[in-house]
UniProtKB/TrEMBL annotation:
Annotated protein name in UniProt: Phosphoenolpyruvate carboxylase
GO molecular-function terms, A-Z: magnesium ion binding; phosphoenolpyruvate carboxylase activity
UniProt keyword terms in alphabetical order: Carbon dioxide fixation, Lyase, Magnesium
Organism field: Thermococcus argininiproducens
Enzyme class: lyase
Gene symbol of the encoding locus: ppcA
InterPro entries with a match to the protein in the record: PEP_COase_arc-type, Pyrv/PenolPyrv_kinase-like_dom
One record GO biological process: tricarboxylic acid cycle
Amino acid sequence: MIPRTMSTQHPDNVFIPFFAHESSLGGEDEVLEAFYAFSVLEVQEQMWDFEGKEVDEFVVKKLLEKYGEFFKKKKLGKDFRITPRVPNPSVEKAEAKLLFETLESIPRSADYAKIFYNEEVAPIFEVILPMTTSSEEIERVYELYKKYIIGKQYKRVYDVKIYEWIGKFYPEEISVIPLFETKEAILNAHEILEEYLTGKQFEYQRVFLARSDPAMNYGLISAVVYDKYALFKLQELEEEIGITIYPIIGVGGVPFRGHFTPNNVEEVLEEYSSVQTFTIQSSFKYDHQPKEVIKAIERVNESKRKSAEPIDEEIFTILEKYEEKYSKELRPLAPLIRGVAKYVPSRRRRKLHIGLFGYSREVNGMALPRAIKFTASLYSLGVPPELLGLSALSESELDKISAHYKGLYRDLSFALMYFNPGAAEKFKFLKPIADLQKEFGVEPMEEHEAITTRILSGEFDEGLIVEAAGLRGFLG
């Protein structure tokens, strides 16, 4: 059994980490960041994102060369793990061959570790497959590594077999962690996983549930409920097939993306009680005092998983009208979101995809930026995305939802602090939110309201966006 763990993932921070050479983190910074996460924060896993980002593919070699004394005591692949997030060829055609290159690098990393430790150690033995929608996609990656990365070593080149010439390939197989991001995939995660696991004798299987992109696509409430439904169904599958399933959840700092901050750890552990691994993003690590961060991580590491709770499927009917309203309210805001997003600072260097600018997402037919810039843009406009779609729900329906989404009212109260009542004058459909703000007895933060009023009136400026983020304590 693996312990309950923390895993570092995407950025959402306001401030530049102390070790960064510039505001946009690049390869060398991220290698140092991985060491900082392992050595100081005692995070057990670093996700290495090959999906649309310019990352260093020699991370294992550099960590062992630069920080050898540390890694002689704590082994990569045993005490700590590097887990690549690879492109999904079914979706990301321009990046498809990067999957092959990333899988090729796994045996090479094992060679570095073997020389360093004088024994066979696989620093990388799992990969994350984003945007998974079927068992076939998982199986392809599993087979690609086993048959074509490992299998080719037995082929003959001129007068020798490949392994006789350049050495044996290790590890012999890898685990593939499906990342489910769409409503259909999340709700059917247990069925997809069951198909993939049939006939396999794995000790355990990890599965990754997205939190930010579902919130963008379907609204905050649906994202939480769908993930919690999936967690319960995965628990049932685990009991049925006898293979331990370890869920990962991709939580960010704001309620819209998970509300996982050092001072909200207990609430998140209670909300997602059956989750094994929680991602900590840059805001968690760098926008808080180091002592707070370390204490929070210790709390997660020492906590124990509990059982997932069942979800009443009748609630899905309520969510349908909520999602419809969320999409309807988002549409007139989309041009403003795109306008502000251009001025939201980036924290990682991302590759530009062919025909796309900065890896955009399409939400219900609307071209929108990725989750961090999307969330940052709406907060900068004084319209926290957590509040969109709420006008579709009655008080009794919210109460029904809160029986499953335990932190609902707490998260809404948090978002209401940053709602600018002036937005309701510009967009009449936001008036119910202004009414809700009064009903909850929440006073908007004055300084934040003043800045967002300027942005809302068309004063798009990176300085204003960062200043507002500084008042909130997070970017997006």
